Amino acid sequence: MPQASLQARAILELRRRARANEPPPDVAQWIDECVTIIEPQGDTESIIPFRLWPAQARLLGDLQHERQIIILKARQLGITWLVLAYAMWLCLFRDNRTVIIISKDLGSANESIRRVRGMFTRLKDKPAALTVDNTSEIGWSNDSRIKAFASSSDAGSSFTGSLLILDELAKNPNADSVYTSAKPTIDDGGRAIILSTAKGTNNIFARQWENAEAGINSFKPIFIPWNERPGRDAQWYAGVASSALSMAHHMQEYPATSKEAFQSLADSPFLDAMEWWDACKESLPALGKREPIVVALDAATSNDSFGLVAVSRHPSRPSDIAVRFVHEWRPVNGLIRFGTADEPETPRGVVERLINDYNVNQLTGDPYQLHDLFQSIKEQGRIKVKPFPQGGERLEADNQLKRLIIEKRIAHDGDKTLRRHIENADAKIDDEAHKLRLLKRHSDLKIDCAVCCSMAAKRCLDLSY
User: Fold this and answer.
1) How confident is the model at residue 273 (pLDDT cuts 50, 70, 90)?
2) Chain segment 302-350, per-residue pLDDT in tens
3) What is the pLDDT of residue 239?
4) Structural domain boundaries of the chain?
5) Which DSSP helix (H) or strand (E) runs through 401?
6) CATH assignment of 3-226, given 3.40.630.30, 3.40.190.10, 3.40.50.300, 3.40.1180.10?
7) Separation between Cα atoms, residue 158 and residue 165, nearest integer Å
8) For residues 224 and 71, is the Cβ–Cβ distance under 8 A?
């Protein structure tokens, strides 16, 4: 090791020994005056002073005086930064401390160490010298250290910690095993901090929170709602909610109460209020003969409806969508005839008329029941026929349709059939993909035109203009 580094470490060690008999600085004042963090909301990383909000200052008091805490929090409140800053303070101003962090995955575990390393490196006055520094551990010359583990069935079980931090426990894939391996530390009166946003009720975090609220375990429950962050008001809340998969999911991420955080995430209406759709109604000029359109079909042969929706780009807002045609066919005597090009009222006849009268750029839909119709039109060679897969692209399309509606980027003339089908639709949430899919609220309700609108809008926006 270079002589200069040895000398710097020796000086730090002398300072540490001189401070050994002094009380540590007040943790809130020390963080507020000495610690800097990475701005969490910026487009690029920038370093800012860690100025404590009132809710963070109150939580620090609990971190110091309560041995076991369970924290239910809204997103983006800086609580993880705060807990890590507290852990660093504990290690720097107390000898022989071991803080164990167990995260939901390796990336999160490494990120915890990266954050601590950054906060320590930027300190102007370093109370101890750095002796261990790698992706999973950081340690100092006073024999204190912070170790971070990724989720596994025995994460951290071979270590005895002065403080155990279970980060995002609700989202930890091995949460039950992690909690079981950590429980001896808790049972012996060890210090523990469990913190997480909610993720449903069927996990150890939700059960321990419920027990803490009922007073039947050793944890003090602390709930931190979305509006504890300065600058968040009703307008901010509405703006974030507008792009959420559903209000239930939004309230899980940004709860005002613990009840909101743990509410059911069962299928919910595609639109929380039809006022969103009605607000998109406007008078549209007639469709030009050369204006490109996409026609989407959602077919049925019996006991359902057959939907058709054609859309174009908006005539004055090219990045938006305009609904141009809506048609629904119901079964007659239990059946729907696709018809022929010479039968103008049948699905095939309407498609043929649109091809003849307008600039149909693409015909699309689920190919399962449309194979023969698609093949017949494709053989004509007049327009592009491109089937619409009902897997990942449908998820993208249904998510996009909701955004278009909420952002008023889709215009329609108030067609009653399309409105009814939008209103009939629920949103089935794919939690892993963080996407939704349109589905019927009840088996006897029709949503075919809503599905067509989703597919047509997606393909229309994909076209180059």
Assistant:
1) confident
2) 678 899 999 999 999 999 999 999 999 988 877 888 888 889 899 999 9
3) 85
4) 3-226, 275-462
5) helix 392-406
6) 3.40.50.300
7) 15
8) yes
C-alpha to C-alpha distances, 265 to 70, 245, 269, nearest whole angstrom: 23, 11, 11
Where residue 246 falls (left for φ over 0; alpha for ψ -120 to 50; beta otherwise) is beta
Mean confidence (pLDDT) of the chain? 87
Dihedral (CA of 234, 237, 242, 247) sign: negative
Residues in CB range of 197: below 8 A, 6 or more apart:
72, 73, 74, 75, 168, 170, 171, 252, 253, 261
Do the beta carbons of residue 207 and residue 175 sit within 8 Å? no
For residues 51-56, give the mean pLDDT: 94
The domain defined by 275-462 carries CATH number 3.40.30.10: no
Residue type, 418: L
**Phi, then psi, of 28 in degrees rounded to 5:** -65, -45
Mean pLDDT of all residues in 147-162:
71
* 435-440: strand order across its sheet: 268-269, 425-430, 435-440
Q: Distance between CA atoms of 140 and 13, rounded to whole angstroms?
A: 10
pLDDT at 291: 94
Global pTM value: 0.65
User: In which residue are the tokens 């045609």 written?
Assistant: 325
pLDDT score of 446 more than 80 = yes
Separation of CA 252 from chain center = 10
